[in-house]
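User: Hi! Is it possible to get a structure for several chains at once, not just one? Here's what I have:
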Amino acid sequence: MSMNKETLVSAVQKRIRQAGREGTPERVFGCRFALSIMSDNYIDIILGSLAKTDTSRVEASTGRLSTLYRGKRAQVLDALEGCFIHAFTEGIHMTLEATLSTDEGPCRFSEDDVCPNADSREIHFPCNAKLKLYCAEEKKGDVLASSIAAGHGVLVKEDYYCTVLKGDIQAVFYTIEDICKEMDHLPGHPALEVTLSVNSPTAE
Amino acid sequence: MSMNKETLVSAVQKRIRQAGREGTPERVFGCRFALSIMSDNYIDIILGSLAKTDTSRVEASTGRLSTLYRGKRAQVLDALEGCFIHAFTEGIHMTLEATLSTDEGPCRFSEDDVCPNADSREIHFPCNAKLKLYCAEEKKGDVLASSIAAGHGVLVKEDYYCTVLKGDIQAVFYTIEDICKEMDHLPGHPALEVTLSVNSPTAE
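Assistant: Yes, the chains can be modeled jointly so their relative placement is included. Here is the combined structure:
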């Protein structure tokens, strides 16, 4: 079979594109987090929450300091919210500390787009939160975080080193989700640092 | 009294320099942090720690989500370490989440350089930690954090979104201090995110 110049160029370009897909893995979304439960029963509460959370769509690993979920953004956030909601216990003070970012490390992505913890989106309780979006342009991160929080009605104020939020847990998680979506449009690997707090005994 | 040109220029320059000192405040070092104590007695432990910590050299304020210390770097770190060490309770799992950064907001600096919690530098216990230095150059932050941790003998590994540390609490705090000193040489407002964990029941 003879191949003219046009066909050859097209074949080479196709091969380059394929190599590109294989050689440059998709961007992985990840969340490293820890729950802190101010109770003697903290181990039971955490183990109970982990057992109720469906992590079948993410790569999950737990160490001494934190748990790491990696995969598709929607599914990682679904697992994170599931874990937090399942750990919530009436009258028990609990905090979540989380780093949400992206990387290009190896990752086995879920083949589907199912969010198996979606039922946790129907649970409501009040939440205090602070967050900080670190990206190449300092001010841009703060402006983005604050404007998205304001859009969801949970912005309290900008304070030293963070933006302060308060509202229903669902509005707070939608804020987090929308900020994470904006990360795709920022250069490098922006990171969102989040702290959530429920049932704090400290007066407002 | 007559004023020649040289005296006049000198007087104007002096006034400009003074205005510069007043108008451009010194860079403030700050730490926003929260202790999480996995015990029914968490309120007593935190209040006891706050009572034992001398915060006379920093500007301190506490809210629902975190406590903020601002002032001179050495004195802020002294107060932070004092608070953490005083909260340490044998057999009780505790974590600290802290953001260390700088700002140019108004601040009443201590007139002396005394670190009134220096006795906490004599206390020793094992600690797990993770940290992340956010600065304009992504890689530079990670390299700096890891090399300083290695120098203090507490580096475990670089992991997704953080550097993992383990060692005596003093070596960990010296690592934090040295990274904070390096911030002076980085552009903008770099921020160090730190998590410390003691008495974790999770196996290594």
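The two ends of chain A are 78 Å apart (CA to CA). Chain A touches chain B through 47 residues (CB under 8 Å).

User: Great, thank you!
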